[in-house]
Structure prediction request, 480 residues.
Amino acid sequence: MTDQTASHILRALPSIDALLRTAEARSLRERTGIERLTTLARAVTDELRAELHAYAADGTTINGKMSRESLLTEAARRLERAAEADVSSALRRVINATGVIVHTNLGRAPLSEAARQAVANEAARYCTLEYDTETGARGRRGARVEELLIELTGAEAAIVVNNCAAAALLVLSALARGGETIISRGELVEIGGDFRVPDVMAQSGTTMIEVGTTNRTRLLDYGSAITEQTRLILRVHPSNYRIVGFTAAPSLAELASLAHASGLPLFEDAGSGALFDLRSYGLEDEPVIRESVAGGADLVSFSGDKLLGAVQAGLIVGRRALVESLRKHPLYRALRADKLTLSALEATLDAHRRGTSFTEIPVLRMIAQTRAEIAKRAHIFCQRLKARPEFSVLRFEITEGHSAIGGGAAPMTHPPTALIALAHEKISTSALEATLRLGHPPIITRILDGRVVLDLRTVDEAEETELLDALLSLEGAPRS
Ligand SMILES: *Cc1c(COP(=O)(O)O)cnc(C)c1O
Prediction:
């Protein structure tokens, strides 16, 4: 190709201004904002220019279109797609059909209806965050949440920070900075890659004294490590792994007696932390916070968005004097929870207090659902699918399977469930999975034994119709 033809082709490239004047760009203006739209238009024309250069070099065409007009159409189409990609990277609701209940990548716990109402209708506006309407004077932030936590755990006092990692950092900084903290080698946990107990210890300025071995640590190991420098004994719940076989660890009560005999506090990072005993649902060894408090732990921390079923938060309960020393620590101001968090926590804890947690709080409702109940929902769902004639291209079958607790909790617990296995006549398994994931709202599924499977355990009943409609609209899905 001659230089002359190359520059002729490049002249057909639409200008950014021309692109912004297209009907497509005009309709995107309000939603995207003119600055962002201009940035996207520049990126699109840059991309086309690069492709035109490539054409000049080797003769490849851009979708076979080379006229000024067709390039403008192509540019407008790409601009629309780029603006759409912006929207799809926004924080959006999804339908979780994976059966993983506390799904960390999908925002861990979905909120209860009451918590959503409280956030949207109360806390999102001006609210009584630090105001007492009785006296017209300043009130204490989080007072109601603290009262509920005290009632639900039997502790003397409570305090709330941003997450459980912040709780550990605050406790270690306030109680053990400059001194030593004793921990078993079996509890040097990593949670989700960025929370590592040894790193949090180092950050808080306490010296970690490891005792025992990976599988066995005895009370005597702790006892012989206590020195003048010891400030704290730390016990961490191994949330996301289990050491099985030849193992030993002292009970919490034994550890508490040892700590107290030396005038030391015992701090338990309980992780998920159940407010009630969930053993009957297969969660064998999730510490029940009330039992930890009664067993002698001086401070216990746990997450707000795991088994509690509320929002990201670090809840700390325990002895009044210790909790007050946390409240006075300068780090507390940096780590304290905001009004939206407190509001969702308050509504959720209130359901726990009223004894309606298993009906009101999605995470607990999902844990409590039996295989038979899910199978019944799956059958009704499939009946509804069959009733729709469009459904000739889809094959579905109910099969046995397992859900998961997720969120680093109960790694050995796999509640039995009924799965809806899907196959599409025209599109592959991976294309089916992707089509559902790219929908509005995105539907997140699993692929098991070469089929896309839906686990209704984590799908709200109110979402079933939406899910059904999404499956029905698959007729127009791209082939692959
Ligand atoms: C999950 C977990 C954490 C971290 O909690 P976040 O609320 O995610 O910060 C810390 N410790 C244990 C034992 C956990 O299980």
User: Anything to note?
Assistant: The longest strand covers residues 394-402.
